[in-house]
Amino acid sequence: MLINPVEKDQKSIRELELATGETISDCYQCGKCTAGCPASMDPAPSVLIQYLKLGQFELARNAESIWSCMACLTCSERCPKNVSPAAIIEGLKNLHLRDMDPRVNLETMSRDFIAHSPQMAIISGFRKFI
Amino acid sequence: MSDKPVRVPYYPGCTMKTKALGFERSAMDCAEVIGFEMDELKDWNCCGASYPLTKDNLMGLTAPTNILVEAERRCQKEEVDPNLLTLCVFCYNTLKRTEYAFGQDKKKLETVNAFLDRKYDGSIRVIHYLEYLRDVIGFDNLAKMVKTDMSKYRVAPYYGCLLLKPKKEIGLDDPEDPVILHNFLDALGCKVIDFPAQVDCCGSYLVMREPKKVSKLSYDILADANEYGAETLVTACPLCQSNLDKSQGDKVQFADLDGMPVLYFTQLLAVAFGLDTKTHQLEAHHIDPRPLFEAKGAADDESK
């Protein structure tokens, strides 16, 4: 892994910070976010943030685990440095979604799910995956 | 309570009119007993369900602002306290965080106002039904209205995430060690089952993409409540209710756990008040809570 990030990655990380309002370098890797994460994310939230701190933007952006975040906000609530991993993860997801790269296919979505789920699940899902 | 019921402006949200109809109806019936009226806004839209965590796009705030404008106009016209009552936890979280965001940053409010071509002054205070019971009615007063002996019910209070988090913006209770539902159940006279998983996430909207993971998370919560001796669980969130209740249909995951009814806290309040629960959609639950109510009722008769 390159420790000295390329300029393109540095620019993307600055953009991510602007979009989320977070300061990634504030993280001191205590791991509280990962310890409390109910989504069993792998790579875990603190690892994703460490990728970003090392300038490895693409590793964080392309991690499949970001799609398992449930925005329960446990990580953000417990962070002693006032960083919101949930917001950073949502920022990473939005980079895909804003590029028209959805993670749920509406055409193959089960009709049973649409018929029986609370609207809030469907609308939230649209916001987070499409 | 005074003779004339207090009218509180109320925002239902989409789920309350469809999948969680029993939540709304039971809440309205209980409000009538308590002495206030949930006065639904005339013109409302979906709040967007989840508050946007990225800060560079204000589009996610337009829908909740539209609702807050409507509530503000209603309150000014009728000269009532600028409160907006909510039941659904997602709506509560989204509206409350919007209220907070505008309180912190007037420029955001100006931008959204300009976009919507409406004028929201920022006067509305978003409150949850539970908060109204605690702060306006008082749990001690609520206890005096209970008609049924609830001491036989062993109930686990389940909070989930968005009723409490983020604390700085919601401020309803401590997100790690909350008491509001505990105190509510205490007021009803139930045996309150304090259990470790009370603030664990049920999986939320992940049910759209990874239902298996939601089954597992729901199992962990229900198994924990069961281990601590709960017979039923109460929640304020229609998505928690749906996930915890419907996941129990996953017979592989739930092989070693008997069905546990998952109730809205107002459905239990209606039972405590001795109300007719026919319209509260108990039959719509995957795990039907009525046998539990009947068993408790029958035990009551025997003791007489």
What would you note in describing this structure?
The complex is a heterodimer of chains A (130) and B (304). Chain A is an all-alpha fold and 130 residues long. Chain A has eight helices and no strands. Chain A has two domains: 7-99, Orthogonal Bundle (Fumarate Reductase Iron-sulfur Protein, Chain B, domain 2); 104-130, no CATH class. In chain A, α1 (7-20) crosses α6 (85-98) and α3 packs across α6 (85-98). The mean pLDDT of chain A is 93. Chain B has 304 residues and is of the alpha/beta class. Chain A binds chain B through residues 18-21, 38-40, 67-68, 70-74, 76-77, 84, 86-87, 90-91, 94, 103-104, 109, 113, 116-125, 127-129, and chain B through 13-15, 18-20, 46, 48-50, 52-57, 60, 88, 90-91, 161-162, 165-167, 175-176, 200-201, 203-211, 213, 217, 238-239, 242, 246.
**Topology as H/E string of chain A?**
HHHHHHHH
Largest sheet of chain B: 4 strands, parallel
Name the helicity range of chain A. Answer: 40-55%
CATH architecture descriptor name of the largest domain in chain B: 3-Layer(aba) Sandwich
Tell me the CATH topology of the largest domain in chain B. Rossmann fold
Annotation, overall tally of beta strands of chain B: 8
Q: Class by helix and strand content of chain B?
A: alpha/beta
Count of helical segments of chain A?
A: 8
Radius of gyration of chain A: 16 Å
Query: Which CATH class of the largest domain in chain B applies here?
Result: Alpha Beta
Order of helices and strands of chain B: EHEHEHHEHHEHHEHEHEHH
In CATH, the architecture of the largest domain in chain A is Orthogonal Bundle
CATH homology group of the largest domain in chain A: Alpha-helical ferredoxin
SSE order and pairing:
The complex is a heterodimer of chains A (130) and B (304).
Chain A: H1 7-20, H2 32-36, H3 45-53, H4 57-61, H5 74-78, H6 85-98, H7 111-116, H8 119-129
Helix pairs in contact in A: 1-6, 3-6
Chain B: E1 6-11, H1 21-34, E2 36-40, H2 59-78, E3 83-86, H3 89-104, H4 106-116, E4 125-128, H5 129-137, H6 139-144, E5 154-157, H7 167-170, H8 180-188, E6 191-192, H9 211-227, E7 232-235, H10 238-246, E8 262-264, H11 265-272, H12 290-303
Parallel strand pairs in B: 1-2, 1-3, 3-4, 5-6, 5-7, 7-8
Helix pairs in contact in B: 1-11, 2-3, 2-4, 3-4
